Amino acid sequence: MRINKFNLFKIVAFLCAVFTFLACNDDNASTIESSKITNVKTFNSSKVAFADGMSQSAEGTFVFPSNPENIKSIKMYIKDICPNKDCDEWDRYANIYVKDKQTGDYYELGRFITPYWVGNEKLERGYEFDVTDFKSILNGSTELKIYTETWNAKGRTYSVEFDFEEGTPDYKYSAIVPVFQYNKSSIDGVPYGKEYDTNVFDFLKSVSIPANAEVAYFRTIISGWGHAAPGNCAEWCIKTHSILLNNQQTYQHKLSGIGCAENPVNNQDPGNWQLDRAGWCPGMVVPFRFDNIAKEKFGTTFNFEYKFQNYTTTGEAYYAISTFVVVKSNSPISKPQVLD
């Protein structure tokens, strides 16, 4: 068959269209693959309560994806279920933990405060937490625990799920260990404004960062409790905490308001949910605070100290606090070391 210039042009145009279609489909396939999400449901309408044989915590073992090196992000969602105001009506301290398979210790994944009288049904998927830093632990068969400082039989009911997004992570390998955790409840936090037992509350540590770390940082959660005079501390007063490295003030955590009045869980009636507290709000996640560690400290050991702003009280005030150290690398990395 004789092919003239016009027919040749049509053939070339057709082939270009085919190649463009295939290229676009390859791109789409890559996009779909890189954003593949595995959803894992854990606690399902699990109730925690006090009295009537109930417990303030619920525990369970769940199976997560076993390929942390291929996980780009992990999001955790907590539904606080209270459709008919039949739950604990007060703003209660609550958190969720993951159990380290190697040490048997529970690590605080996230903390939240329950709203007055209602659940968080106004949030489509509930409270959202980025827990990617814990992906070295959140894999395979894993134990979780959810806790609420509730003091009545109505308690709280929770459903919890995780989204594991597959794809290229910022760094292929990571590890996390606690520097300290004084977070079992609000009243198990650190007494503020009075002398405390340094054998129980130890804020002087020695931290070693692996030499092949490419990124390292501290991850801290703080919430203040109590109405001690003066200033109704630690819940209602703004104080600044400091982290010292090798005796030099390096980071500060100011416990100012986080915008309680803008909370989308705005159906907490009655209740003084709109007033800002020391770094937390009823019906909201307690925020994480991140402090990047300078690269010159990678491969070294340095002294760590957490210090509270000076304050003297005649009442009871507490800070519930946990700090972790996270390391990341594109080569296999060991856990950082934290010693007393």
Structural features, described:
With about 350 residues, the protein is mostly beta strands. It has 2 domains: about 140 residues, Sandwich (Jelly Rolls), CATH 2.60.120; about 170 residues, Jelly Rolls (Sandwich). Helices cover about 10% and strands about 40% of the residues. The protein contains 1 helix and 21 strands. The strands form 4 sheets. Strands 10, 11, 13, 14, 18 and 20 form a 6-stranded antiparallel β-sheet that branches. The protein is globular and about 55 Å long. GO terms for molecular function: oxidoreductase activity, acting on paired donors, with incorporation or reduction of molecular oxygen, reduced ascorbate as one donor, and incorporation of one atom of oxygen. It comes from Paenimyroides tangerinum. This is Peptidase.
CATH class of the largest domain: Mainly Beta
Give the CATH topology of the largest domain.
Answer: Jelly Rolls
Class by SSE composition: mainly beta
Estimated share of beta-strand residues: 35-45%
Signal peptide: 1-25
Organism: Paenimyroides tangerinum
Domain Peptide-N-glycosidase F N-terminal: 39-164
Protein name: Peptidase
List keywords for this structure.
single chain, 340 residues, mainly beta, Jelly Rolls, 2 domains, 6-stranded antiparallel beta sheet, 5-stranded antiparallel beta sheet
Q: Could you write a compact summary of the structure shown?
A:
With 340 residues, the chain is mostly beta strands.
